[in-house]
Design goal:
The chain has about 200 residues and is an alpha/beta fold. Helices cover about 35% and strands about 20% of the residues. The protein has a six-stranded mixed sheet with strand order 3-2-4-1-5-6.
Length: about 200
């Protein structure tokens, strides 16, 4: 059995975020200048939280995650986890609430509290399963005690945390460059025990 400290961190503000657009895994957007600036502001707090322990840095493959990992941790080569992308938002991709208002498919999804499969997209159940596979992959060797920082998307964090705790997906919304810190015990069979707290160096949710 090994113990791991894991930081789950949402990427900085990306193009589309500021306009409140639904940005999933179909749009590989870059960070905005605001996003880059906010990462710079968080770096001292991130360094202080993680000081004293070598950190293995992982990220999803999309620009907004990779670039956040590079900037936040001063690394040119975070380990990328292919499945660690945002939900496939199907026909909602790139659109705002106002643009979707009046679309019966969107209203049906809202009425389901976001649990129904998005038209032409991904179900919450499938997304949660994919996010957990990616999370376990990022954790690496279950027998190695280490500190791991995982930079990904808000949806991935919500999916992982709700899967681990069996709580509501929407209980785990976080702002940009914020997230959760977890203390895990695991072996070859998976995660045996964990505790968690808010990371607390990003924007309020």
């Amino acid at each position: 059995m090994a113990k791991k400290k894991v930081y789950l961190i949402r990427h900085g503000e990306a193009e589309g975020n500021a306009e409140k657009r639904y940005i999933g895994n179909r749009t590989d957007t870059a960070l905005t200048q605001t996003g880059i600036a906010e990462i710079g502001k968080r770096k001292p707090a991130a360094a202080k939280v993680m000081e004293g322990a070598p950190v293995r840095v992982c990220s999803g493959p999309m620009k907004r995650a990779v670039d956040t990992a590079r900037l936040l941790f001063d690394t040119d080569s975070p380990e990328t986890v292919p499945e660690l992308t945002e939900m496939d938002l199907g026909c909602f991709e790139g659109k705002t609430y106002q643009e979707l208002s009046g679309d019966p498919r969107y209203q049906a999804w809202i009425d389901s509290n976001g649990t129904m499969t998005i038209p032409e997209g991904e179900s919450l159940e499938a997304f949660a399963e994919r996010s957990m596979r990616a999370f376990l992959s990022a954790l690496g060797d279950p027998d190695r005690e280490e500190t791991v920082a995982i930079v990904c998307h808000g949806g991935n964090i919500m999916a992982v945390m709700s899967s681990l705790t069996r709580k509501n997906y929407y209980d785990f919304i976080v702002g940009n460059v914020d997230g959760y810190v977890l203390d895990l015990e695991m072996n070859d069979e998976g995660i045996l025990a964990f505790s968690y707290d808010r990371l607390g160096f990003g924007n309020p949710a």
